[in-house]
Amino acid sequence: MSTDAPRTIPVQRAFDDDHPVAPWQERIRISAFVPFSTVDWPGSAAAVVFLQGCPWRCGYCQNPQLQARIDPPSTSWQAIEGTLRQRTNWLDSVVFSGGEPTTDRALPDAVRAVMDMGYRTGLHTGGAYPERLAGLLPLLDWVGFDIKADAAHYDSITGAPGSALRAMRSARLLLASGVACEFRMTYHSALLSELAVLRAADLLATLGVRRFVLQEFRPEGVTNALAPHTGISERLLRELDTRFPLFGVRRADGNPGCGQISGR
Ligand code: SF4
What we know:
It is built from eight helices and nine strands.
């Protein structure tokens, strides 16, 4: 067979991570695009790009359909870029979310593309890929970092051996970078004790985290059968408030205190 024969890329193969031929705009696996949000980057008017894929399997995951990278992209990068170019007067940032968006090897190219349009760049991550996060940090203006648990309970929350080490490496890289950030933890009373939350908070405070938000478990989208969540005690909130200069709670019902940060 001639080695000069042209290569053709079957449609599905064009989206494979390791395919060396398809341009990144065709490899990126977009699950959804939200053209305007004020909650995904607190204080910023953002568009949000949701990417497929996550190596972890948290029991309380609200987007389990994003864990596997098997669905065709819901929209094209070209369509998103067209919308973003029309909205530069309305938006000031683009946030990449998931899933775990660093799963997608096209992410750095997409971040550079929105930078070139003049947008500030944000990322939601759990830190599953510290090496990829290290390469992204110079491109980012803000990171929302999802911390899952204290070290002893990390793997039981994520269902992934070694996840605590990866998350802590990523957290340290983020804090050393100086990129603005918010650390947040989803709390389900049957999955994590209040003592475990405080142990995680103590470690974060020691590392220098300034802004921490406790997010109450919300059942929307969750497909696993979980024991009932019984709420957050006032004692836990008081204890957390002593550990961070900026602390807030996002309640499951959205009130009161959703998105509110109390500073000291
Ligand atoms: S890290 Fe996030 S996207 Fe991945 S399984 Fe956990 S909650 Fe779901």
